Amino acid sequence: MRTEDVLAAIDTGLWRWDNAAGTVAFDAEAARLVGLPAEEVTLTESAARSRFHPVDWNEIHGIVQLAVAEGTVAEARLRIMSEDGRQVLRTVRSRSRPFDSDGDYQLIGTIQEVAESPPGTAARTPVTGDWRRSREAFLLDAGRALAEARSTAEVLRVAASLSMPGFSPDGLAVFGAAGDRLTTIGHHGHKPGDEQPFTNMPLDTDYPAAEVVRTGRAIYLPTPEEYRRRFPATWPLAERFGRRSWAFLPLIVAGRTMGAWMAGFAHPVAFTPDERSVLTTVARMLAQALARAGVEESERELSAGLQRSMLPTLGPDIPGMKVAARYVPTGGGLQVGGDWYDMIALPRGRFALVIGDVQGHDVRAAGLMGQLRIALRAYASEGHRPDAVLSRASRFLHGITDSYAPEDHSSPRFATCLYLEVDPADGTVELARAGHPEPAVRMPDGTVLVRTTAGGLPLGIDPDTDYPTTRLALEPGETLMVCTDGLIETGGHDLDSGWSRLRTIMESHRELDLEKLADELVQAVHGPPSHHTTGPLSDRREDDIAVLLLSRETTVTEVSPVRSTALTVAQAEPERIAGTRRQLRELLHDWADADQVDSAVLMVSEMVTNVLVHTDGDALLTARATGPVGKRRLRVEVTDISDELPHKRRPGEMASSGRGLLLMEMLAHEWGVDPRGQGKSIWFELYEDAPPVSYEDV
Length: 698
Hints:
Layout: H1 3-9, E1 12-18, E2 23-26, H2 28-33, E3 41-44, H3 45-49, H4 54-70, E4 74-81, E5 88-101, E6 104-114, H5 126-148, H6 152-161, E7 171-178, E8 181-188, E9 201-202, H7 208-215, E10 219-221, H8 224-230, H9 235-239, E11 245-253, E12 256-265, H10 273-310, E13 321-328, E14 339-345, E15 351-358, H11 363-381, H12 386-402, E16 415-423, E17 428-434, E18 440-442, E19 448-450, E20 469-473, E21 479-483, H13 485-489, H14 495-508, H15 514-526, E22 545-552, E23 562-569, H16 577-587, H17 594-614, E24 619-626, E25 633-640, H18 660-667, E26 670-675, E27 680-687
Antiparallel strand pairs: 1-2, 1-6, 2-3, 4-5, 5-6, 7-8, 7-12, 8-9, 10-11, 11-12, 13-22, 14-15, 15-16, 16-17, 17-20, 18-19, 18-21, 21-22, 23-24, 24-25, 25-27, 26-27
Helix pairs in contact: 5-10, 11-12, 14-15, 16-17, 17-18
């Protein structure tokens, strides 16, 4: 008697599903069970699909793939539909063994009718429907939670919190493979130290997780007896945990087995196809999450290491000076970008402060920053002056960026930089600027001035650019602040609104703690307070932040109420006269009488203009306000190198010049012209407690 006849006698049919050919073959009994005439027939997949409930047909694909991966039997219940697809004729159970061949498979097995829902119903029993809905909801939630995990620790916490529908494990462990050893990445449901026997275990050990890593196939142990029979050597290690069922599944990413996942159950689990399907899906998601977290952790560690190596801590304490610095990466995914700062020891007790910003927020910007920082340190250590240091650095950067091919969209690159050479003995600061934001000085009484300084093009644009040097003196109690544009413009600000925001922070800081001031500046633009001070350019991209603070200590307990400024206006830069007017207004921001401020600005503008028009040299402006508030004295001097003394004129009504000394005679409380050894100084004084002189009658 043939096998087919024996099976037909017990209402069991045979079928063969050839995935490569796209056909499904039924014997006579199988054809009858699926609602076809009782004779052998071969159908296309689409024709066979029409005989089954669409939900069941879709599910059988996953069950078959699981059976192919695990080398087990594919078992499923399938609903047979009428020709019009509206009624369920019967429910059959299929048990088949898949044979995999180069990605294709053949499914050979049996079909047998089982007692299920009566004919005429179009759905499964409520229990089955609830299971499927619960499984789908669980997998969606698990996938979302694992996708959001950003570290290995977070992935393990998510895995430990997973509550699978109907069979939640009470113990989990994740194993990795390092060479020929099995390691424990993490675990849940075990006491500290329980993982020791499983850590650093040879992969050839007779242990389920080791075998899973070796073979890439899952192992299901539904009973302690099954565990003891298959793995007698390591059964004593598992027995003490008192569990009843275990599942060991491979963690596979891109075809490579990276480890194994163990789920232990305190209650018996049969590991039905549905349950194995859930476990396999979770294992795949867990493997992807662990691989992604490992890559992100490696990138963070690389970025942090790069940041630590490229942003050194400030040097030792300097007598009479305090220095504070901050670096905050905000403009990109990396934890280090093109911003940097540095502190360089120089001969004779002097030191240099450097701050700069290489264009971009990528790895190349960080690499160029490191090269440029080393070059600047080398040029400074050779004893070059600030202008020479920047000139050499510009040629260096132009040379290494100009070598890139034109099709490289990320080239050429440039960098802004501010180089300061400081003498702690007298507070003298000589600085050169390459396209960088100008420095600001906070005076002892809280007044903040943006120091107007000469500058050149950013580094790397023109190898022959000159960088003029500006000299200023840092008085006791004053604080110099230099920063990259990220501190100014972060939060949608431009230069004007950004400086205004920083000025408010610096003026309101009444303590002499530079570290606290540095924190307040960063928090104002990068912390919670920044959300309340957004600027007009809300679509502007955020940028990295670097800031340096330098303060000259005072030896007196009560700071003398003195504020001063000095700047040079060159013959070639008459447009900087507007900067002198702005500087003087900032110096007198709290002067009692606004008319006196207007008078001072008018006289300064006239004095500086006269130097540029009637001499061949530059104008040096110094302004100093002394005394208590309400009784202060302002003295302004403009010095030039010409020995020709000015004299009063009587200009006509239509004259465009000749009113300088007349203005000073009428608006100033005191004024004069003092000859120097070379050149002269024109000065005036205003007293805050004296009535102003109106210039409307001039």
